[in-house]
UniProtKB/TrEMBL annotation:
It catalyses: ATP + protein L-histidine = ADP + protein N-phospho-L-histidine. Keywords: ATP-binding, Kinase, Nucleotide-binding, Phosphoprotein, Transferase, Two-component regulatory system. It comes from Cognatilysobacter lacus. This is histidine kinase. Pfam families: HATPase_c (PF02518), HisKA_3 (PF07730). SMART domains: HATPase_c. One of its GO terms (cellular component) is membrane. It comes from the Bacteria. The keyword Metal-binding does not apply. The keyword Nucleotide-binding applies. Coiled coil: none annotated. One of its GO terms (molecular function) is ATP binding. Residues 45-233 form the Histidine kinase domain.
Length: 234
């Protein structure tokens, strides 16, 4: 009869939508894997290629400097070139670590998060405490997911929050890993910046793993974010 609801048809449509959503998440995770592989390759090329070339150049300049008389214009110019080379080498190494820190692949998530907190804290002049409870084993994709969300959250704090102290906690509760980042900064109105400050990117990345992002903040009251990632199922 015309206008009569067809339960089977709606069931099929719902199943199709759910299948499309699963396929969307699968394709999205594939894109993230490709991006991380490319980051890993670029980081290795920077470290092993450009980094080693800069190291060799620095040593050669030092040899030339030592072969000329001290307190001469040429000596001073070579010394300045050595310092420039050393600074560029350190910048290259830092970029390599930020692209894909080897510690994440070599030692896992906990050491990588502690390194991240120490690195951003030192560069931004913020006290960042990292607390990590014992966790069940995590696959590489979830470790990368949690690291990237933490990296984005801490970078946002360093750029915008004017915070003095930050707490980063990683815990497991009822089959879910929770990444919590709390700062004492100036805060903001989440409704007014729903897609800004990297929040949209974090939400989209988490969505691909059926995870979610919770944000609590107010002007003058700091910010608390929590990423909740299920341990099972995709």
């Amino acid at each position: 009869m015309t206008g009569t609801a067809d339960p089977d048809r709606y069931t099929r449509l719902l199943e199709r939508l759910e299948a499309n959503e699963r396929e969307f998440r699968r394709l999205g995770r594939s894109v993230l894997r490709v991006q991380e592989d490319e980051r890993r390759r670029l980081a290795r090329d920077l470290h092993d290629g450009i980094g080693q070339n800069l190291t060799a150049l620095k040593h050669r300049l030092a040899q030339l400097r030592d072969s000329v008389g001290a307190h001469t214009p040429l000596h001073d110019s070579l010394e300045a070139a050595i310092q420039l080379c050393a600074g560029t080498l350190e910048d290259t190494r830092e970029l390599s670590r930020l692209l894909r820190p080897p510690i994440l692949d070599d030692l896992g998530l906990e050491p990588a998060l502690r390194w991240l907190g120490r690195s951003i804290g030192e560069s931004a002049g913020i006290s960042i405490a990292v607390e990590i409870e014992p966790l069940p084993p995590l696959d590489g994709e979830r470790e990368t997911l949690l690291f990237r969300v933490a990296q984005e959250a801490l970078n946002n704090i360093a750029k915008h929050a004017r915070a003095h102290s930050v707490l980063l906690r990683l815990v497991e509760r009822e089959g879910q890993v929770q990444l919590q980042v709390v700062d004492d900064g100036i805060g903001f109105d989440p409704a007014a910046t729903a897609g800004g400050s990297g929040l949209s990117g974090m939400r989209e990345r988490l969505r691909l793993f059926q995870a979610r992002l919770e944000v609590h903040s107010a002007p003058g009251d700091g910010t608390r974010i929590r990423a909740v990632v299920p341990l099972q199922g995709l």
